[in-house]
Write a structure and sequence with these properties.
heterodimer; A: mainly alpha; ABC transporter involved in vitamin B12 uptake, BtuC; two-stranded antiparallel sheet; B: mainly alpha; 1% strand
């Protein structure tokens, strides 16, 4: 559902119901396909285990990318502000999450702190910086660039170049058995593929956040204002809505999501300097592919980029990044505005 | 804002007045600089600034005249540098075909121009602020690719031991010859951009920046002009890349990473995008800060300093140091600020 698309009717529309149906059907088909697994596929795809785990890694990574990119695309959709400091917000969130988690011992507290602190920082950035440069897209972008340079350097000064890992509570740790058989032992018992539980949790959280964002945009009053602002800012302002308050809320949510993703991602992977650039790049490609300002587009883009990255990692190690790049170029060639984007 | 550049297409006039007295004085000062400068100031400040100036100039051509802020200029320069490493000489025993410089340099620059045109063809599919995102994605993709790929780019370590050419009995990497080499290339690129800005092509490009729809309606091929501008800027960036690889003697993914891509933009913005001299002013300023940051904030926090300077420039003067000078000049001349045509207002299309 595009940010700008109208959906006033309650419940889900006919089109959405069909989309969900087809997704489920595709899932079942894929599972059946994987369950049979003819032998000749091993020659092409190395092994069933490698293939299945690369797919799962791709999908769970897509969840993380979606969390980061959704904030980016939300801010762009409303304010036309390309926030090149978004990666820095991610990294700062991860560091704050690390500090809070390691000091209090409560991981959930770290997640909450990552969201709230970054939301507050986003609010301040919008009120004190971007509001003064409204309507000048290039200067806004340059300012975010300057902020990202300074932020990266200051974070390096505070947290040095070390790599941190945020501790995950034990109830999220460990591996879970998937209903997919990777091999059959000689005594006839099946070997199931094990997968880290936490990564599946990340995916679930991303789906929940995505649905939550969609509901907020389509079912609440603030969401209505945001959608109206995307379509026509001046008209929204003229109808008595405090546009700047809406902007501030959106920027706070966007920055908060980046911080949230930082803590969640920092627990699954690691926290180190340079991650800011990596996630900024991921967000850029995700929203270019998915379409600027569209939450659904961000989800599709994240899925494509996450899968391409992980499949590339397994099957063409030294050309993995090219696969991501090819997806971007092909999208630009066929649909310059992105898969779910609207022509401006 | 394009009035300054649109004024008087050069008619048959006195050459000196056409070039301008200030430019002649500047050229003289730059030519005489080696007489007073030590080797350190000649190479690490002089030549280094000129190389960064050339790189930033290639961006100024795109952003100033074409309204396309590309972050992939360092990628173009990096491609030229890798071509020099692979087809020229290096001491890594990987490739190194040993082509002579007079084949190698035109070849490297041509490849850079083609790569730049391809980048342009990809990014002109969308307009305005999207360009910065797409070119940033391209630059980052090239960095990761060069880092992962050992077959062509020799991965993380890249290539080292790349010599500058020896000819006419001169080692062109010696301080004084290298300075003059950089100065020559920089002057050539500067003149080319200046000429281009007054040519039919340059005027059409500026008009495209200001109003693409009208230009399209007038029958101009807008996309072709933009791609051509990318190709032209690729030539300049290619020269910058060749000089840079001779200066460093090595090329690795670290030379084309995110930070360097940003540096090109920072230099161009700090200097100013309205005139080709801006990138060089910015380069001298940034290189001086880089060199003497140790005395101001310590070597570690150089990026914070440069980032803050950049932020101040973006906030105070959208036209960089050049624009700042335009703002201050009337004060110095004790005139009212209002008597000058309004500066400000960067091109935000």
């Amino acid at each position: 559902m595009s940010l700008t698309e109208q959906s006033a009717s309650p419940g889900i529309t006919r089109r959405q119901a069909w989309a969900i149906f087809w997704l489920l059907a595709a899932g079942v088909l894929a599972w059946m396909f994987i369950a049979v697994w003819p032998h000749w596929l091993n020659d092409i795809l190395i092994s069933k285990k490698a293939f299945v785990s690369s797919i799962f890694n791709g999908i769970t990574l897509a969840g993380l990318y979606f969390l980061v990119a959704s904030g980016f695309t939300l801010v762009f959709g409303l304010m036309r502000n390309v926030n090149l400091a978004h990666g820095s917000l991610y990294l700062l969130g991860a560091y704050i999450g690390y500090e809070v988690t390691s000091r209090t011992g409560y991981w959930l507290l770290g997640v909450a702190a990552g969201f709230l602190v970054l939301a507050a920082i986003g609010l301040l950035m919008q009120v004190f910086v971007f509001r003064r440069l409204e309507g000048d897209e290039l200067r806004q972008t340059l300012v975010t660039l300057g902020i990202s340079i300074v932020a990266a350097d200051l974070m390096l000064a505070v947290w040095t170049g070390n790599t941190y890992q945020i501790g995950v509570p034990h109830w999220l740790d460990g591996a879970i058995r998937l209903p997919i058989v990777s091999a059959v032992r000689s005594n006839g018992s099946a070997v199931y593929i094990m997968y880290p539980f936490y990564r599946l949790v990340v995916l679930a959280v991303a789906i929940i956040i995505g649905v939550g964002l969609w509901l907020m945009l389509n079912r609440t009053r603030v969401g209505m204002m945001i959608r109206a602002g995307v379509d026509d800012r001046a008209m929204l302002s003229a109808s008595g809505v405090n546009v700047h308050a809406v902007f501030a809320i959106v920027f706070a949510i966007g920055a908060g999501l980046a911080g949230f993703a930082g803590v969640v991602g920092g627990s699954a992977l690691s926290v180190a300097p340079g991650e800011d650039v990596r996630y900024l790049l991921a967000s850029l490609v995700v929203v270019i592919v998915g379409g600027m300002g569209s939450i659904t587009g961000a989800a599709i883009g994240a899925l494509l980029v996450g899968l391409a990255e992980q499949i590339g990692l397994v099957y063409f190690p030294t050309y993995g990044i090219v696969l991501t790049f090819v997806i971007m170029v092909v999208t630009l060639a066929i649909r310059p505005q992105g898969i779910m984007g609207k022509v401006q | 804002m394009s009035e300054a550049a649109l004024e008087r297409p050069a008619a048959g006039r006195n050459i000196l007045s056409d070039i301008g007295v200030r430019q002649v004085l500047l050229a003289l000062a730059l030519l005489l600089y080696p007489a007073v400068a030590s080797d350190f100031f000649l190479t690490q400040i002089g030549a280094y600034s000129l190389i960064w100036g050339v790189l930033a100039l290639s961006l100024m051509l795109l952003a100033g005249y074409g309204g396309m802020v590309s972050l992939a200029q360092i990628t173009t320069a990096g491609v030229a540098a890798y071509v020099v490493a692979i087809f020229g000489t290096n001491n890594m025993n990987i490739y190194g075909f040993g082509w002579p410089w007079w084949v190698l340099v035109p070849f490297a620059v041509t490849v850079a121009a083609i790569v730049s045109a391809v980048i342009g063809a990809i990014s002109v599919r969308t307009e305005g602020i999207y360009t910065i995102m797409i070119t940033l994605a391209i630059a980052a993709a090239f960095f990761y690719f060069a880092q992962q790929n050992y077959a062509l780019f020799n991965g993380h370590s890249g290539f080292a031991g790349i010599p500058a050419p020896h000819f006419w009995g001169v080692n062109w990497r010696d301080p004084v010859p290298f300075y003059y080499l950089c100065l020559f290339v920089a002057a050539l690129c500067y003149a080319a951009v200046l000429y281009c800005s007054r040519s039919t092509f340059g005027l059409a490009l500026q008009a495209t920046r200001d109003n693409p729809r009208r230009m399209r309606a007038l029958g101009f091929h807008v996309v072709a002009h933009k791609v051509a501008a990318y190709g032209l800027s690729g030539i300049i960036a290619g020269f910058g890349g060749v000089l840079a690889v001779w200066f460093n003697g090595r090329i690795s993914p670290g030379t084309v990473d995110f930070g360097q891509a940003i540096d090109v933009l920072v230099i161009a913005i700090i200097g100013g995008l309205r005139h080709p001299i801006g990138p060089f002013i910015g380069a001298v300023f940034v290189v001086l800060i880089q060199t003497f940051a140790i005395d101001i904030v310590g070597a570690e926090r150089y990026n914070t300093l440069i980032g803050l300077v950049f932020l101040v420039i973006v906030f105070v003067s959208p036209d960089g140091l050049l624009g700042l000078w335009q703002q201050i000049k009337p004060h110095l001349a004790q005139k009212s600020l209002r008597s000058m045509p309004s500066g400000g207002n960067g091109k935000s299309n």
